[in-house]
Specification:
Elements: E1 9-12, H1 22-35, H2 42-49, H3 54-65, H4 73-85, H5 95-104, E2 109-113, H6 117-126, H7 130-133, E3 137-139, H8 151-160, E4 167-171, H9 174-182, E5 186-190, H10 198-203, E6 207-209, H11 215-218
Parallel strand pairs: 1-2, 1-4, 2-3, 4-5, 5-6
Helix pairs in contact: 1-2, 1-4
Length: about 220
């Protein structure tokens, strides 16, 4: 490798980085939005909403429709998404090996997601990854502003006791990369999914990889 990162803390996004949920979640979201009168393709749904909080999705759709979706809308879409996940989801290839290697080498890590704790625990539990990170989960529901604002990553770093400039963020979404950069952290963009815009992640300041396992070569354990 031409270079490596020497972080004191590695911060993982959850969906799309540790658990392979983005295709399932966005197909469910596109279908549900269509039922609400907002017609959108799966591809456009991913382009617009990956990495965003459900509150941000609701605000976008309500602005477009010119009417409220209802106070129960976030809960309804969460229920639909969890039902879709219950049909079967898998960990991102290499994610378990990376988490186990970080633990074995005593490199601190945590998970900071736009999703709620309920969703994280469900997906990480369904893929067998929860025992590796269950004590170090952080959610956008804990902060005032979700990604692309830096709030969540700064919150996670502070709770873990690390300076932002010593943290490394692993993200697969544009808002996530923007949030990591805004927080003053180093960022690796994971672009293993064919629909991920690797060039856009790179433009926003991420070092881009297409295989999560490559993290073991990029992270210095000295």
């Amino acid at each position: 490798m031409a270079f490596s990162f020497s972080p004191s803390l590695v911060i993982f996004d959850c969906d799309g980085v540790l658990v392979d949920t983005e295709p399932v979640a966005n197909r469910a979201l596109a279908r549900f939005l269509g039922e609400c009168g907002y017609e959108i393709s799966y591809e456009e749904c991913r382009r617009l909403f990956v990495g965003r909080t459900m509150q941000a999705v609701q605000e976008h759709v309500e602005d477009a429709l010119g009417r409220p979706l209802g106070s129960d809308w976030p809960a309804r879409i969460r229920d639909e998404t969890l039902k879709a996940f219950a049909q079967g989801i898998e960990p991102v290839a290499g994610a378990r090996e990376v988490l186990e290697a970080l633990a074995a080498r005593e490199k601190p890590c945590c998970v900071a997601s736009s999703g709620r704790f309920e969703k994280m625990r469900f997906t990480l539990g369904a893929t067998g990854l929860l025992p590796l990170v269950e004590d170090v989960l952080f959610s956008a529901e804990e902060v005032a502003h979700g990604k692309p604002a830096p709030d969540l990553f700064l919150h996670a770093a502070a709770r873990m006791g690390h300076a932002p400039e010593s943290c490394l963020v692993i993200e697969d979404s544009l808002p996530g990369v923007q949030a990591g950069v805004a927080a003053g952290m180093s960022v690796i963009g994971y672009a293993g999914d064919p629909m991920t815009d690797a060039a856009a992640l790179k433009r926003e300041g991420a070092h881009v990889i297409s295989d999560v396992s490559a993290l073991l070569d990029l992270i210095s354990f000295r």
